[in-house]
Design a protein that fits this description.
single chain; 5 strands; 49% helix; transmembrane helix; transmembrane; DUF3592 domain-containing protein
C-alpha cells in the first residue's frame, strides 16, 4: 500500500475520530449539566430581531428571545436565547440553570442541549466511515495487484 493512499484516507479518518471524541465529551458535559441543573419556568419578555448583510448583499434576520425567570434565591434573571418565528411575547418556557451560575441559563429544548452532540457525531461517523472505506479500498486494490504478480 502506498504512502499516498494512507495519507489520503487519514485525511478523513483523523478528523472523523476527533469529531467523535469531541462529540462524546460534549455528550458527557450535557448529561452532567442536566443532572446538576435546576429546572424552572420562565417567560419570554421580548423578541429582538437582528438583521445582517453578507458579502453578496443578502439580508439575514435572526430572532433572539429575552427570557426572564426567578432563580432559587428569588433573584430575577434575564438571559438571551435563540428564537424562532413561532415564539411569542409572554410565552412560558422551561429554563435550566446551574445553582451557582444562574446567569448562564439555557432553554430546556433538544437543540440547545444536544445539537452539538448530534452534529459532531454525524460528522465523526461520516468522516471516519469514509476514511475506513477509502483505506479498505486501497488495501483491497494492493492485495489484488500483489496476487497478480
Amino acid at each position: 500500500m502506498k504512502i499516498a493512499s494512507i495519507f489520503f484516507s487519514s485525511f478523513f479518518l483523523f478528523p472523523g475520530v476527533a469529531c467523535l471524541v469531541i462529540s462524546v465529551l460534549s455528550y458527557k458535559e450535557s448529561s452532567e449539566f442536566l443532572d446538576s441543573s435546576i429546572k424552572t419556568g420562565g417567560k419570554v419578555m421580548e423578541i429582538e430581531e437582528y438583521t445582517r448583510v453578507n458579502e453578496e448583499g443578502n439580508e439575514y434576520s435572526n430572532l433572539e428571545l429575552v427570557i426572564e425567570f426567578i432563580d432559587q434565591y428569588g433573584d430575577t434573571i434575564q438571559f438571551n436565547a435563540p428564537g424562532s418565528s413561532h415564539d411569542v411575547v409572554g410565552q412560558k418556557v422551561e429554563v435550566l440553570y446551574h445553582e451557582y451560575a444562574s446567569e448562564e441559563a439555557i432553554l430546556n429544548n433538544g437543540l440547545e442541549l444536544w445539537g452539538g452532540v448530534l452534529a459532531l457525531g454525524f460528522l465523526g461517523f461520516s468522516f471516519s466511515g469514509l476514511g475506513i472505506f477509502i483505506l479498505y479500498g486501497f488495501r483491497r486494490k494492493a492485495k489484488s495487484e500483489n496476487s497478480k504478480e
